[in-house]
Amino acid sequence: MKKYAIIVAGGSGLRMGSALPKQFLLIHERPVLWYTLNTFLKSFKDVQIILVLPADFYDTGRTICDEIVSQHPILTVVGGETRFLSVQKGLTLVKEQSVIFVHDAVRCLVSPSLIHHCFEEAIRFGSAIPCIESKDSVRILDGSGQRAVERTDVKLVQTPQTFLSEILLKAYQSADKSSFTDDAMVVEASNQPIHLVTGEIENIKITTPLDLAIAEKLLEPSRRAS
Q1: Which pTM value belongs to this model?
Q2: Distance from CA of residue 174 to its chain's centroid?
Q3: Burial of 7 by CB count in 10 Å (0-12 exposed, 13-18 middle, 19+ buried)?
Q4: Closest C-alpha among 132, 122, 133 to residue 193
Q5: Can you list the positions of beta strands (E) in the chain?
Q6: C-alpha closest to that of 160 among 25, 2, 18, 3
Q7: DSSP classification of residue 169
Q8: Which of 114, 121, 156, 211 is most buried, with most CB under 10 Å away?
């Protein structure tokens, strides 16, 4: 089946304390985004990548794409003001029945094995949402105060969130859900069930200088060669 990977690279560098968006920061002389794109290309030779970029850094992202050799040239589109609108714009380039991955550009430590697992599970169940267990105690804040919950009842959601195209496209054709922070929420709002799969602890989202330092360590050339 045809595969599309929508890589959402519209974030800013606010929490990183950088004027340059975090997806363009360098790790071992390569942009964070470069690692993400190459992992998807390495995972499936027939994947079509759709990269959603911020308008102010469109040329920067396009330059990275042009330096990557792939069987299918990477498609690029300018994103919207929210994640929902950015994914929606990426979906306009999906032209056939397929499996669609939606992945955060700054999760550059995702592995080919997780990408393959999400694909296989989406084929079986219609969706595959990678999650990991919470290592910390969890409390919920609500209008009446706060309360503790069992941490075993809490899952930390990752990407790539993966769907059959007919499910994801239909969900995103509905009313604007700009407040939603991930694709699973959008699909659930269209009354479709969500299938959770086991994610990876190393599949962190780079948002702070500490995250970047961890990624630098895990992406050391000596580790990648082993």
Answers
A1: 0.94
A2: 21
A3: buried
A4: 122
A5: 2-8, 26-27, 30-31, 47-53, 75-78, 98-104, 127-133, 138-142, 145-149, 155-157, 161-164, 196-198
A6: 3
A7: H
A8: 114
pLDDT higher than threshold 70 for residue 93: yes
Mean pLDDT value across residues 184-199: 96
Please count the residues of the chain.
226
pLDDT at residue number 14: 55
Count of alpha carbons within 13 angstroms of residue 203, beta-carbon side: 24
Residue 177's φ and ψ, nearest 5 degrees, are -120, 55
**If you compute the radius of gyration of the chain from its CA atoms, what whole number of angstroms results?**
17
Reported as a pLDDT band with limits 50, 70 and 90, residue 179 is confident
User: Per-residue pLDDT tens for 36-49?
Assistant: 999 999 999 999 99
For the chain, the straight-line distance linking the first and the last C-alpha, in angstroms and rounded, comes to 32
Distance from C-alpha of 79 to C-alpha of 93, rounded to nearest angstrom: 13
Residue 122 has pLDDT above 90, yes or no: yes
Region of residue 217 (left: phi > 0; alpha: psi -120 to 50; beta: else): alpha
Q: Which residue has the higher pLDDT, 18 or 148?
A: 148
